[in-house]
Amino acid sequence: MADSVPLITPYNMGPFHLSHRVVLAPLTRQRSYNTIPQPHAILYYSQRASKGGLLIAEATGISDTSLGYKNTPGIWTKEQVEAWKPIVNAVHEKGGVFFCQLWHVGRVSNYELQPNRQSPISSTDKPVGHTTTNGEFNTSGCSVPRRLATEEIPSIVNDFRIAAKNCIEAGFDGVEIHGAHGYLIDQFLRDGINDRTDKYGGSLENRCRFALEVIQAVSQEIGPDRVGIRLSPYTNYMDAVDSDPDTLSLYLVNQLNKFNILYCHMVEPRMVTVADRVETQKNLFQIRKTFNGTFIVVGGYNREEGNKAIESGYADLVAYGRIFLANPDFPKRIKLNAPLNKYDRSTFYTPDPVVGYTDYPFLSSLSSDD
Fold first, then answer.
1. 287-318: burial string, b at 16+ Cβ within 10 Å, e else
2. Dihedral, CA atoms, 148, 204, 191, 110, nearest 10 degrees?
3. Residues 222-235 pLDDT 10s
4. 153-170 vs 204-222: helix axis angle to the nearest 10?
5. Considering the chain, what percentage of its residues have pLDDT values greater than 70?
6. Residue 298's beta-bridge partner residues?
7. Which residue, among 62, 15, 66, has the nearest Cα to 162 in the 3D structure?
8. Contact at 8 Å (CB) between 265 and 296?
9. What's the number of CA atoms in the CB half-sphere (13 Å) around residue 143?
10. How far apart are CA 201 and CA 207, in angstroms?
11. Can you tell me the distance from the alpha carbon of 188 to that of 124, in angstroms, rounded to the nearest whole number?
């Protein structure tokens, strides 16, 4: 029965009444041609929607300088907003709750993807020096970034605010600020990247200033009960390292509590390279205890581990990425403890509108048990 499966129990996330604890993690899919979300995304997201289930849309650009990969969507133009509307409507028709992840990649970009072939912007002028080898993205083509001047930073904060406003216009229930995985916000947070000497660099308080200004602006625009943030203080993706991630995490979460945002979505310390788990004694328990809102964990979870995380109080919700990608009816399979489709990594980032996107099979033989 469903009540014997902790992941399949109801949860009130602020104003949103969830019927289960299984979340679709934001997944870059690179199928939004010329930054415009496409009609095939209607099927993709509606396939993975369930009544009272939380979906977080793929990372979505906030401006024409925010992009780092081809065919990723944006939400800074009217055309983009209009293109998102039928996708959001399809999720809502299935009874789902839909948040949009907002990102700026910062230095994880190149001249070809920037307006007028300009340099990518960042907290620093140090380029990404690491080439990923885990089958995710190849960062060897990243261009040397331009360090943002102090007086330019408020305009980037405003881009996040406007993008959040656009998300609500498109019908999304809320937004998740992407503060993880070595992208722009993370480039300010980490002392291994941030080498500034102004009010956005140096001390812990200064390095967190940009992230908190974004949270404040977005919360004031759309309401804190529609705002979440994703953080990955223990990963080293895109050269994002910090000398003291424990202190960084706890300080940042304490500051986030002041804004009463809806949730914090934290990547497990074991996911050092995003793609593969490593053994570690570190965990998120202290951060979970410190944060006042809904706490979502992500990072290599299976069914058993997810159930344990919920049952023990380690997390309120568990996000799944690649497994959910390959199993559009994943919450149902969790409920029934049904076999899972295997994902095909080679199709994660292809532009094909069907293959590796909407062609993963549903459970059929077990449908009578629903």
1. bbebbebbbbbbbbbebeebbbbbeeebbbbb
2. -30
3. 999 999 999 999 99
4. 30
5. 93
6. 267, 319
7. 62
8. yes
9. 18
10. 5
11. 8
The closest of 129, 120, 123, 247 to 186, measured between CA atoms, is 123
Q: Angle, nearest 10°, between helix axes 204-222 and 245-257?
A: 30
Pairing of strands 11-13, 22-24: unpaired
DSSP 74: B
Taking the C-alpha atoms of residue 164 and residue 63, their distance in angstroms, rounded to an integer, is 12
| H-only helix segments in 194-337 | 204-222, 245-257, 285-290, 303-311, 322-326, 330-336
Q: Catalytic site residues? A: 183
304's CB contacts (< 8 A; 6+ apart) are none
The answer to whether the CB of 193 falls within 8 A of the CB of 240 is: yes
Q: Do 230 and 189 form a contact (C-beta atoms < 8 A)?
A: no
Task: Check if the beta carbon of residue 122 is closer than 8 Å to that of residue 148.
Answer: yes
At residue 280, what is the residue type? T
Supply 331's token pair: 């919450």
In this prediction the pTM is 0.95
Neighbours of 39 (CB within 10 A): 10
Contact 104, 60 (CB under 8 A): no
Backbone angles phi, psi at 52, to 5 degrees: 75, 20
Cα 262 from Cα 174, distance rounded (Å): 9
Tokens of 45: 């997201």
pLDDT, position 274: 60
Residues 191, 64: Cα–Cα separation, whole Å: 27
Q: Tokens in use for 288?
A: 């979970």
What is the Cα–Cα distance from 196 to 145, expressed in whole angstroms? 14
